[in-house]
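Running this now, will post back.
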Amino acid sequence: MLTKRIIPCLDVRDGRVVKGVQFVELRDAGDPVEAALAYDAQGADELVFLDITASHEDRSIMLDVVRRTAEVLYIPLTVGGGLRTVDDVRTLLRAGAEKVSFNTAALARPQVIREAAERFGSQCIVVAIDARRTATQPEAATSSSRPPTPRREPAGPATRCPAPAWTVYTHGGRRPTGRDAIEWAQEAVAQGAGEILLTSMDRDGTKDGYDLELTRAVADAVTVPVIASGGAGGARHVAEALEVAQAALLASILHEDPERLTSLRAELKEMGVELRDAA
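Update: finished.
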């Protein structure tokens, strides 16, 4: 059985780790280098570094912070925020990243995923998807002019309940794209993405648990690993996410308790979750 991964996330703005709820009300959560060192020591499997305002501010990612973070790590580092071109990928890999994460630029020009994957390999290309649940209309198999089929009548298909749908957002969760999250995940993989980092904007920072319906829908639709993100409040939530996804991203639950990762890993192992042994 493949082991599952626990991945702390550093959302970085102006060189500092920040955390909010549903992508707003950001508050300072410390120095990224210090946080990276702590997570590495506590047994994190990987680390994600996201410059969350780079795309919104139309600037390049903060390379100096990336380099300083990469220098202290012995685990894989994924870096995202503000990537636009294959040259940006090369620059981040040279700065110490093992993987890079596209979001806004990939939606604007999906071909950049393929260009980067062909140059550096799909294994280091992650596509991040920020998705918010949207209301949908019931799907009816009968014409609106035709009277509804009686419930006791088996011949005609009944009106089905609304199918859940999720819209993709860009620019750090600021702009809706109108794109369906599941369809976009499939297109990203077809273009060459080796992994999907899937964040539920509705659950982000709430500690109410991951959006398992969203995570399962995307995981069932693609052939690459999915990292579940948004909503972890405890070991039970993480275990539930890891039944559906290959990895779970953590942020708020760790920022508020520097020693939480160690105890969380122990709880998950007691629950039977297959994790690698911490170094």
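The chain has ten helices and twelve strands. More later if anyone needs it.
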